Amino acid sequence: MSITMTDGATLTAALSASAAELEQALDQLLPPNEGAEARLFDSMRYSAMGGGKRMRAFLVLEGAKQFGVSRTSALRVAAAIEMIHAYSLVHDDLPAMDNDDLRRGKPTNHKAFDEATAILAGDALQCHAFTVLAEEETHPDPAVRIELVRAISRAAGPRGMCGGQMLDMMAEQATAPLDEAAIGRLQLLKTGKLIEVSAEAGAILGKAAPQQRAALCNYGRDVGAAFQIADDVLDATVSAEEAGKATGKDAGAGKATLVGLLGLERARLQSERLVAQAKSHLEGFGERADLLRALADYTIARRS
To answer: What is one GO biological process annotated to this record (predicted)?
Structure first.
C-alpha cells in the first residue's frame, strides 16, 4: 500500500512545517545554558531537539485542528509528548536496556554525554513535560489540563510505555516465544499507547464529544500498531544508514516481533489491514482529516 503522489507531497510539506513549529516550541520550553546545571539542559536538548519524524506531535496538531484548538495550546501538548518520547529513547538506548550507540543518525545520549547525565536528562524531560501540561498557558480550563496529565501519564506509565518495556525485556529471557496476542499487547503498551494518546490529545483539548474522542483514540491505536510492525519490517530489511540507527538487532537479541512470528509478507499484510481500519475511524471528520488519513498510509510506506 502506498500514498498517492499528491497526498505524499502534501503530507511531506505538512510534516516539515509542523516539525519546524515543534522545534521552535521546544526551543522556547527547553532553555539552554541554565546556570551551573547547563550540562543537564544541553543533554535534554540534544535528545529532544533536531531530529525524529515528529509523528506524535503531528497527530496532536492535526487532532487539535479538527476542533479549532489554538495552535499555541496544541504545540505545547505536542512538545510535552515529544519530551516524553525523547526521554523514553534516552533510557531505551542505555546499556542496561538496548545498549545502542546510534539514534537518529548521531551518537545516543549516553555516548555523547555519559550514562549518569543521560539518566538525569531522561528523568528531567519527563518531569518537565508534565510541568508544561499543567501550566495555564496550555489550556485555560484546569479540568482539561488534569485530563491531559491523566491520559498522557497513563499512556507513559506501568500500563503503557514503561510496562511495555518491561514486557519486552522479559520476552528476551522467555523460554518459549510469545504468541501473536502477547506480542500485540507488548507493542501496544511499549509504542502504541503514546501514539494513541497523541491522536486523542486534540480531542481532549477541544472538549470533543465522547464519540469523536473515541474515534481519534481508535485511529491512534491502529496507526500505532501499524507503525510498530513497519518498524519491525524496517529493522529486518533496511541498512543502518537508511534507518539512522542500528538495524537487525531484534532478531539477534531474540526480541519478540510480529515479523519474527509471521514472516515479512504476513506482517506487511497485517499492517495494511490496520491502516485501512485506522482510516475507517475518521469517516465522521470529512476532508479536514485527510492529512491524518495520509499519515496512516505513510506509517507503512516510510523507509526510516
So the answer is: terpenoid biosynthetic process
Work out the average pLDDT over 98-111. 92
Residue written as grid cell 534516552: 90
| Number of domains the chain is built from | 1
Place of cell 518531569: 127
Q: What pLDDT, in 10s, does the model give residues 161-192?
A: 999 999 999 988 888 889 999 999 999 999 99
Q: Confirm whether pTM is higher than 0.85.
A: yes
Residue 58: which CATH number? 1.10.600.10
Its domain, for residue 27, covers: 5-301
